[in-house]
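Repro:
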Amino acid sequence: MTAHAVSRSKVRRKSRSFVLLPLASLVLLLAAVGTFVSYVLWPTWPNAAIPVDAPAVPVTVAGVLFNVPQAAIREAVQRQPGAHERIDLVFLWPSLAPPPSDGAPPTKPPAMRDGDAQPALPSADDRLFVTIADLGAVLAPAERLRTVYPRYIEMQATAGPDGLAVVAFRTGTPYESEDLIYLAEQPELFIVRCTRPIRILPGTCVNERSLGAAEITLRFPREWLNHWRSVAASFDQLIAQLHPQGN
């Protein structure tokens, strides 16, 4: 082999080294970045369980002040006092207490006996999910009832439990596969939108209320409508707890 050939071989090896070294560095950098991002974004639970009787924290949403039980807040990042864009909460039903945070199954209330004032609600799903968010440019629930929903519903309503009326949203509308359910004599007193049960998937209802510039959305199983009067009264009670008069 000539000196010229040896020199060319060394140049090729050096060229490969110069090409591979930055590539290897880039791979290591991408791996490090990926590891860091995975660590930051990986969902974690709080280090310590929040006691059910932990003091409420004052938070504001859309300028409205709420006193929120810490154990009821679903997202750890939202368990800080101050202003939030939204707060996601969960409560046991019908006690309206925060669920235990240690993973233990909640104790269900005993069945009501004949003659008791309030009937027992179904225990298939004992969670009430509540979201408080800025109403923003969205119309208030009462305004939607007057100006939006009538454009999308069927003309014929059917009778529901205990004085409720049930009317389906038309196919092809933003609310298709849902029903609008309201108190027939006074719709403004109680109105919900509910999905219809599909096979083993139960229906879910949404009751929306506005408080100042904040919207409170309550999600619950459709089967609770069999006792809608006690459900509505408990919703009023819960909102009064979260937003005491004078706040």
